[in-house]
């Protein structure tokens, strides 16, 4: 299930910023004619796992959008940074990511808007080590090679975990790899630790006995955010609301029966249903608009990355949060 955009999703932010116009044209060319911006369509980007995958599989969104005169196209991405790069260049209108990707995307000038979030799920991400690794604590990571997807939520987990154990970001050797490549490097012993999220986390635990050095509990919230392109949302608020309602309904179904959701996801994700059920139980459901507390927590992440020199400029998260209807 690899689309044209997915294969191009490994591009770096440098490439996007250097050639945004050409890349936007290339990405748009890879979409069906009905997905062009001039048509009444919402282009949704999703990752291999989560509520959007279930909503796509159920087919419940299409009738609701048809009543509004809209259709929908779906494109899969390897991770949140790649998804938001596509939003930045105008290839999608809506998607879901973790905490860090929208911060980097906002700093890069992406026209994104936070429209909703799920509750915290700190157990749904972790720093893993091989089952026979001599590393026992986060403090043991000093001088070690730690892999993670650059600009993803687990990058903040790494920062927080290091600081909580008397280390700094510069005390490790970051290895920037997307999930599939990181898993391969992890199994080969090319890296010492791997910061990753579910369902990749649950799959590594089950398949190769990966051991959790630390998860997000007490360190990070691990919110899941839904984002939309600003102009699209301003022009079509009812369409964005229809997608959010579909996601809320799916979330309630999953919360009521995680095992059934795992069975539905398993064929698409390629992970056994019992393993997916573990990941789903570590996830949180209950979609709602961002509260001031969530915005404040997101701002703290942005400030941390800026202090570390990982962001090119300071940002104000509240500037890109959808305002509640009056």
From TrEMBL:
| The protein's role, per its UniProt record | Part of a binding-protein-dependent transport system for aliphatic sulfonates. Putative binding protein.
Q: Which UniProt keywords apply?
A: Signal, Transport
Localization annotation: Periplasm
NCBIfam families, alphabetized: PRK11553.1, SsuA_fam
Q: What is the scientific name of the source organism? A: Zavarzinia compransoris
Q: Which family does the entry's similarity section mention?
A: Belongs to the bacterial solute-binding protein SsuA/TauA family.
State any GO CC term: membrane
The answer, when asked if Protein transport is one of the entry's keywords, is no
Q: What is the phylogenetic placement of the source species in the record?
A: Bacteria, Pseudomonadati, Pseudomonadota, Alphaproteobacteria, Rhodospirillales
Q: Name one Pfam family in it.
A: NMT1
Q: Which named protein is this?
A: Putative aliphatic sulfonates-binding protein
Q: Which InterPro entries match?
A: ABC_SsuA_sub-bd, Solute-binding_3/MltF_N, SsuA/THI5, TAT_signal
Per the database record, which ranges form the Solute-binding protein family 3/N-terminal domain?
Answer: 41-258
The organism's place on the tree of life at top rank = Bacteria
């Amino acid at each position: 299930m690899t689309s044209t955009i997915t294969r191009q999703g490994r591009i770096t932010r440098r490439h996007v910023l250097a050639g945004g116009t050409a890349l936007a044209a290339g990405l748009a060319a890879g979409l069906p004619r009905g997905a062009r911006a001039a048509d009444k369509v919402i282009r949704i980007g999703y990752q291999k796992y989560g509520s959007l995958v279930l909503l796509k599989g159920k087919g419940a969104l299409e009738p609701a959008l048809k009543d509004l005169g809209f259709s929908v196209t779906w494109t899969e991405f390897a991770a949140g940074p790649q998804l938001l790069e596509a939003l930045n260049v105008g290839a999608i209108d809506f998607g879901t990511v973790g905490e860090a990707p929208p911060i980097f995307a906002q700093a890069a000038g992406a026209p994104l808007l936070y429209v909703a979030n799920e509750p915290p799920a700190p157990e749904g991400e972790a720093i893993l080590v091989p089952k026979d690794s001599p590393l026992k604590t986060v403090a043991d990571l000093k001088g070690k090679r730690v892999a993670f997807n650059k600009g993803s939520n687990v990058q903040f987990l790494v920062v927080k975990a290091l600081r909580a154990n008397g280390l700094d970001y510069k005390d490790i050797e970051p290895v920037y790899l997307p999930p599939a490549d990181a898993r391969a490097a992890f199994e080969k012993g090319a890296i010492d630790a791997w910061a990753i999220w579910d369902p990749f986390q649950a799959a590594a635990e089950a398949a190769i006995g990966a051991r959790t050095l630390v998860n997000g509990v007490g360190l990070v919230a691990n919110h899941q955010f839904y984002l939309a392109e600003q102009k699209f949302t301003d022009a079509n608020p009812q369409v964005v609301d229809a997608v959010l309602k579909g996601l809320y309904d799916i979330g309630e179904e999953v919360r009521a029966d995680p095992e059934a959701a795992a069975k539905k996801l398993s064929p698409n994700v390629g992970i056994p249903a019992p393993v997916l059920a573990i990941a789903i139980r570590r996830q949180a459901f209950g979609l709602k608009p961002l509260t001031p507390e969530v915005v404040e927590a997101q701002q703290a992440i942005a400030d941390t990355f800026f202090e570390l020199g990982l962001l090119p400029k300071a940002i104000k998260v509240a500037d890109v949060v959808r305002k509640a209807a009056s």
